[in-house]
Amino acid sequence: PPLEEQLNMDDFARTAEQVLSPKAWAYYSSASDDLLTKTHNNTAYRQILLRPRIFKDVREVDTRTIVCSTPIAFPVFVAPAAMARLAHPSGEAGIAEACGREGVLQCVSNNASLKPEQIMAGRVSGAQPAWFQLYVQEDRRKSEALLKRVDVLGFTAVVLTLDAPTPGKREADERVKNAGNTTSATSGEGVQGKGEGGGLGKALFAGTTPSLTWEDVKWLRKHTKLPIILKGLQTHEDAAMAARKEMLELGVTGIILSNHGGRAADTAPPPVYVLMEIRKYAPEVFDKLEVYVDGGIRRGTDAVKALCLGAKAVGIGRSALFGLSGYGVDGVRRVLTILREEIETTMRLLGVYSVGELGLRHINTRALDGL
Ligand code: FNR
């Protein structure tokens, strides 16, 4: 269908299912076990209600914000996702261009299908910021060499993913029999998928170490000058651990509450629950770290609710890939534009002028209060 007929994230998902190869669709859409967390990530937002206020002059609303010292046009970033070239030949470089044109941040995956150099070359300008997501390899020297390249390429933060020391059991991915070899691979370096029918997800995780501990943040600090963001936190205890003085001194500036889009532990909580438990048991975290969330963001209302609960910005994973599918750069731009407009509309309807104003008074979380 023509791009202008795509009106929301679900439209893009349906189109992607039609235009992608079965292997690509299985890899992108799949999640662990019974897909309970994948679904719950989104339905949790729908249990929260908005509390719109009247008599506010909302001709002008300002969606701009600052994340990790970077000004962005609205509080959305593209989450790291592997293998964007399965969607479109422009791959992650196309996503970089779309993010530049729409004024948001891209987090580039360690398992991107292009090299970081090629992706950064897709940016609209050399000053366009981007984050780099790292999976630490069993052979640490490989990750150290990659971090050296990242440091000089203009990346503005390193995101360390921690929710997937091992991939979840993604059956849709495993069922696609031709999911074996692939020419695109880890940081565009040509790692070959292994195991016929074993699934692309599993193949991509080969070489990733399952042994990381809090001590390894020191190792990371030794090998990068950039701010560190920890991704994949799923409890208030770990959020509090990340906000310890020791971690702040090592340059941890943010955390992404994420369950990998339901692709890691199935029945892990949606990020909304984690935001709520941090508010209850470790509220100091919001003063010490920037808290971001990803997983299940399908509507501007979802994003606004996360912000009301204390998130600085929200990530989109699959929606960016689905925008890229069939439509390339323009599709990703439209995905971002739709989200920006939905966020703006929600702010107007709430009677809010700026994202900094959004708070608990704009939502009703009663359905989740027994958590
Ligand atoms: C991911 N995700 C991911 N995360 C990460 O840290 N490194 C990676 O390489 C990948 N790769 C990846 C591939 C695909 C196809 C998907 C769908 C996801 C997880 C991603 O960053 C994010 O947490 C989720 O995608 C967010 O959920 P939604 O927006 O897809 O619901």
From TrEMBL:
One of its GO terms (molecular function) is metal ion binding. It is found in: Mitochondrion intermembrane space. It is an enzyme of class 1 (oxidoreductase). Residues 168-177 have a biased composition (Basic and acidic residues). Its cofactor is heme b; FMN. GO terms for cellular component: mitochondrial intermembrane space. Its main location: mitochondrion. The keyword Mitochondrion applies. It comes from the Eukaryota. Residues 1-368 form the FMN hydroxy acid dehydrogenase domain. It catalyses: (S)-lactate + 2 Fe(III)-[cytochrome c] = 2 Fe(II)-[cytochrome c] + pyruvate + 2 H(+). The keyword Cytoplasm does not apply. Keywords: Flavoprotein, FMN, Heme, Iron, Metal-binding, Mitochondrion, Oxidoreductase, Transit peptide, Transport. Residues 166-195 are annotated as: Disordered. Its EC number is 1.1.2.3. In the N-terminal section; belongs to the cytochrome b5 family. Belongs to the cytochrome b5 family. Homotetramer. This is L-lactate dehydrogenase (cytochrome). It comes from Choiromyces venosus 120613-1. The lineage of its organism: Eukaryota, Fungi, Dikarya, Ascomycota, Pezizomycotina. The chain holds residues 103 to 473 of 490 of the full protein.
